[in-house]
Amino acid sequence: MAKFSGTRAHVYLAMLPVWIIVLVALVGSTVWTFVISLTNSKLLPIYKFNFFHQYELLLKLPAWQVAVTNLIVFGVLFIAICLVFGFIMAIMMDQRIRGEAFFRTVFLYPYAMSFVVTGLVWQWVLNPGFGIQAAVRGLGFESFTFDWIVQPDRAIYILVLAAVWQGSGLVMAILLAGLRGVDEDLWKATRIDGIAKWRVYTSIVLPIIAPMAATATVLLAVSVVKAYDLVVALTGGGPGNATEVPAKFVMENLFARQNVALANAGAIMMLVAVIAILVPMYYARRYMAQKAEA
């Protein structure tokens, strides 16, 4: 028993630096961010508290409202399309097609790129002067127009297009792992019963791989909340503020506009959004696991 206790003491001692880093770098910085958001800090932090004034101001700002609206549109479309495309690609890969390793690498490769690179690539591709529009017009179709990147009412969908191109491969990899875990006897039984394949996937397989789909959804949702580099690289938040998102709003107020308290209030609101996504999904997965065990 003494030896066991000594071993546990060594384990805790070895983990002590990690816990210190977590408490100071993560918890400490989060608490400090919240404290500064309760002040009237501008260029430098000051500790003259006005409590929730910054949050009231933030919620009334048209720029913040536009950023949140854009984030909702971007997030809903990005997550939904990624899940659908990822599921379709996973089904394709699950058919043991020839060259599966090659196609799996091709589909997953965009996710290995940073959002900055993705944004710059798609900015070049979609530029009306020398991108898709110019290429098609060069083939003789002079009336062809594809200038969504400079259209305020359509630019947000360009962000969705670029993000889906990068993120759907991750969903494919996660769901493919789930599909490969489905018992082969189940497929044999459905073939014997003559059940249509699409019905098997939607009514039987999809509920089985629901935990993998939930994991993919969480990863995509977190990417949505902290979306910044893709926006800056692809559209810069424009045209106008058509593609402004909360993360860009926070960074601009923190560095360019020198409004530290307002930026920190925005950051805390983003943290609340992440918690609002993760906590219900955590309890839903826990409930499903307990129900499966029962």
TrEMBL record:
Database matches in Gene3D superfamilies: MetI-like
SUPFAM superfamilies (UniProt xref): MetI-like (SSF161098)
InterPro entries reported for this sequence: ABC_transporter_permease, MetI-like, MetI-like_sf
Membrane-topology annotation of the record: Multi-pass membrane protein
Domain ABC transmembrane type-1 intervals: 68-281
CDD domains: TM_PBP2
Keyword vocabulary terms for this entry: Cell membrane, Membrane, Transmembrane, Transmembrane helix, Transport
Subcellular locations according to the entry: Cell membrane
Primary subcellular site in the record, as a coarse category: membrane
Transmembrane segments: 12-35, 71-93, 105-125, 155-179, 200-225, 261-284
PANTHER family in the record: ABC TRANSPORTER PERMEASE PROTEIN (PTHR30193:SF42)
UniProt record similarity statement: Belongs to the binding-protein-dependent transport system permease family.
Protein name: Carbohydrate ABC transporter permease
